[in-house]
Amino acid sequence: MSVSLAVEGMDALALAQEGERLCRENSMKAGIKYLEMALNKKIDLGGRSLEALSAIYSQLGNAYFVLRIFDKALEYHRHDLETAKLLNDRSGLAKAHGNIANTYKALGDFDSAYEHAVSHLRLAQELNDKVSVVLLRA
């Protein structure tokens, strides 16, 4: 069986897991390929589909950030933010706001970066996330 046939037979969750593994190994372009294939598959991601979708969006945003493709990073981090809102996931909201703040900072849009950093700090305080609070105040 060729690699392309093997990949074609993978379900969305398996593709996402492989994409995350590749990103952890600093193979961002390959990881992005798998993560985007997972998004394009019209297969259920399991009983926790929105949580899986949020993880994929976050990982894609981070991978594009590492590659310095900030417009794509921002796009996926915004998707992650919207998914966290749907899930009412306060920790996910904090993470997404932090990622968006970092991306806006890299783009030189300091007003937008500040706005999202403040949202991240507020949520971190509400969640008693002392590490994030200390880092954000530094």
Describe the fold and architecture.
By secondary structure, the chain is an all-alpha fold. The protein has one domain (3-137): Serine Threonine Protein Phosphatase 5, Tetratricopeptide repeat (Alpha Horseshoe). Helix content is 80%, strand content 0%. It starts with a helix and ends with a helix. 38% of the residues are buried. The mean pLDDT is 89. It is found in: Cytoplasm. One of its GO terms (biological process) is establishment of mitotic spindle orientation. Keywords: Cytoplasm, Repeat.
Find the CATH superfamily.
Answer: Tetratricopeptide repeat domain
The number of distinct structural domains comes to 1
CATH class: Mainly Alpha
The fraction of residues assigned to DSSP E strands is: under 5%
Category by helix and strand content: mainly alpha
Helix % is over 70%
Number of helices: 8
SSE topology sketch:
Blueprint: H1 3-8, H2 12-24, H3 28-40, H4 49-66, H5 70-87, H6 90-107, H7 110-126, H8 130-137
GO biological process, one term: establishment of mitotic spindle orientation
Subcellular location: Cytoplasm
Pfam families: TPR_7
